């Protein structure tokens, strides 16, 4: 078995982990599993793609930053894409989720997210068709780094970006007043209001963070694999499995869960074949539910 | 006469959907169990029955050439067992875990259908599934009407049985558990067993519907069981009103009519090369419709659930959410 | 009685429209006072102060804080307005450290001032200093109550409102909690509390109200109320009738 699966697994795990942070935060703070989270990913990616296209139309062809496959337009577009995805999440909450939350039946919100997911994804298919597309068609040369492992400059850059983001989110959650407010809200919503936390603003912040990370994870998939309307939907099961494996509400747990699932997937692809990749998340999910449903870092079932 | 034949064909499909919706109504409407992977259970039924009843095929396992009724029975057993296992895994936890797991079941069933060629025929699916009135296929009208008769009979039996069940003490326990998930979890094993039973019976009904559909069309492929199927059935139940078996049947026929009608409309309005795109717009419209019904008329046409959860109950749930050791 | 810090007039409140739990209660808390609300089980004591704190919907009447109408103010704005509430149970964030429990309540305090405020609370509650890194869920009952009170006081409220601070505590801790409240009053904080433990509460209180069926039925000087026959009738009579099976 080649050790290449470590790099592949870490990359897949990064994408799953970044997405799972959003899932776990939405679950612990808004108390519902958001089935539209994967579609935030796809929408963010297509938004970024559209901005890249617009920049290309305005400034002509721009050389990539060697040795990466992309140049500054993608970086600028990603920042805009992140903002747009955050806005999309806020908008969906405003027109749909917030109204249903006010009625107090959490599972209705889950169902609405399922409906929204279907609508969002199909809207992407309508606008961009279901044909896969790419940020860049250039083929990158993977450099050997020993032990039979090869890695491309893009992959290195994205692994670094993930580390920075994960560290950033962790510090945000533990060291800032906003982060503490989010923790407080997830532990006891009534008490959070009593101590002066404006629940509405924390909820908004949660959506923005979740949407932003989903967009970045989606763009990573776009850079390394391809862009499709179903790209986010296909990530849903791994993301949920990662969030549950890590322990709902735990940011480090979601990331670790993502990495474990990513590595397991990459290992399974080598051993059994790529077509069974999606089964890995399900098997891990079932194992967690039977053995330790609170997950690795979970505190207790709520 | 052509129109009559088409009407029979339409109604047969709609009633098969009704059967799935009835299964979902037992799970969700009556018991409050959230199943977002019902396409998986329908597929399990279709493949099981196909496997049992098709003539022997060297390219894959089986078929065993058994009678159709055995195929249907087998479909219900396998579908019920799969649902029971899903329930056992998740019903001691919060409802979201069931949702995520059923979602996973659908993904896995799809994966097996696509990749386990020896079992399922892979992407090309299984053909030559015996049809109950295959000998009548030469006179389409008679064939369609006899299919409709069979499907109507099965749906009617399921409907009456479910009506009876929901009025029985068993059904009342389920309703009580639905109203208070917290109690349902804390009541422990006995309550969980009730819920597993409901989920399994619901799964068996869905599987039976899958089997009916397979024998009605004579051919199945993984594409028939995509998430869109789950989604359609949910819209049918919500439109009809969750909790009501009558609503499940009426909602299914109504939504299927809207679906077919809007499909016909797009095929008339859009040029052939744009058909695929137009079809996605159709899904958008139905998705938006689901959300609007949830917002404006959560009870659907015949639903029995309280329109608004009482404020006090809600406040208590929020406050009680973090109670230690719960 | 000096000027009123809290003035509640004809308050009606309840979770469901048309089913008020508080039915026309009026109470006044003067500056620097400890006011106790007593009453039989189910009298609506807890709902009364939760309504004041913005946690139970108010359907009629007014609540004034320092003369300002706060009847419609959302719960999360109460600390900014000067009212800090300590719920009866679940009054700490169990998965956060003691220090984070204090910090999370500092949203309205200027960032530079926060460390000093936290030290101030540690000085007032030395037991908490040793536990500052402990996860709050692991504290003993008495320490939890202390943390909850410290968390409320850290914003320097005009009035501290407590819902049965002695509930569920062992007798040793009960004494400690009431001693603590007496100490807090000495530092100039006005206190409004609901209590089941009438004797201990009246011992430290200035004035008291007896609430029956959602309405204030009797008012008096705390030290005199314990022997007041009207109170015995309202309070104990009600209780004995209750045990007799009436809903």
UniProtKB/TrEMBL annotation, chain A:
Q: Where in the cell is it found?
A: Cell membrane
Keyword Cell membrane attached: yes
Q: Which Pfam families match?
A: BPD_transp_2
What stretches pass through the bilayer? 6-28, 40-60, 72-95, 107-128, 156-173, 205-225, 237-264, 276-299
Its primary localisation, in coarse terms, equals membrane
The record ties this protein, via CDD domains, to:
TM_PBP1_LivH_like (cd06582)
Would you name any one GO CC term? plasma membrane
| Keyword list, A-Z | Amino-acid transport, Cell inner membrane, Cell membrane, Membrane, Transmembrane, Transmembrane helix, Transport
The keyword Transmembrane is assigned to this record: yes
Q: How does it sit in the membrane?
A: Multi-pass membrane protein
Could you tell me the superkingdom of the organism this chain comes from?
Answer: Bacteria
GO BP: D-alanine transmembrane transport; L-alanine transport; L-isoleucine import across plasma membrane
Q: Which GO terms describe its molecular function?
A: L-isoleucine transmembrane transporter activity; L-leucine transmembrane transporter activity; L-phenylalanine transmembrane transporter activity; L-valine transmembrane transporter activity
Give the family this protein belongs to, as stated in its UniProt record: Belongs to the binding-protein-dependent transport system permease family. LivHM subfamily.
Q: Which PANTHER family match?
A: BRANCHED-CHAIN AMINO ACID TRANSPORT SYSTEM PERMEASE PROTEIN LIVH, HIGH-AFFINITY BRANCHED-CHAIN AMINO ACID TRANSPORT SYSTEM PERMEASE PROTEIN LIVH
Could you tell me what this protein is called?
Branched-chain amino acid ABC transporter permease
TrEMBL record, chain B:
Main location (coarse class): membrane
KW Cell membrane (keyword) present: yes
Keywords, ordered alphabetically: Cell membrane, Membrane, Transmembrane, Transmembrane helix
InterPro entries (UniProt xref):
ABC_transp_permease (IPR001851), LivM-like (IPR043428)
The residue range of the signal peptide is none
Q: Which GO terms describe its molecular function?
A: branched-chain amino acid transmembrane transporter activity
Q: Which residues cross the membrane?
A: 6-26, 33-52, 64-85, 97-116, 141-162, 193-212, 276-296
- Location of the protein in the cell: Cell membrane
Q: How does it sit in the membrane?
A: Multi-pass membrane protein
Name of this protein = Branched-chain amino acid ABC transporter permease
State the PANTHER family in the record: HIGH-AFFINITY BRANCHED-CHAIN AMINO ACID TRANSPORT PROTEIN BRAE, HIGH-AFFINITY BRANCHED-CHAIN AMINO ACID TRANSPORT SYSTEM PERMEASE
UniProtKB/TrEMBL annotation, chain C:
Q: Which residues form the ABC transporter domain?
A: 6-238
- Example GO molecular function term? branched-chain amino acid transmembrane transporter activity
Q: Which UniProt keywords apply?
A: Amino-acid transport, ATP-binding, Nucleotide-binding, Transport
Instruction: State the Gene Ontology BP annotations.
Output: L-amino acid transport
Family matches, as SUPFAM superfamilies? P-loop containing nucleoside triphosphate hydrolases (SSF52540)
Q: Which domain of life is it from?
A: Bacteria
Is Cell cycle found in the keyword set?
Answer: no
- The residue range of the signal peptide is none
Hydrolase found in the keyword field: no
State the similarity comment.
Belongs to the ABC transporter superfamily.
- How is this protein named in the record? ABC transporter ATP-binding protein
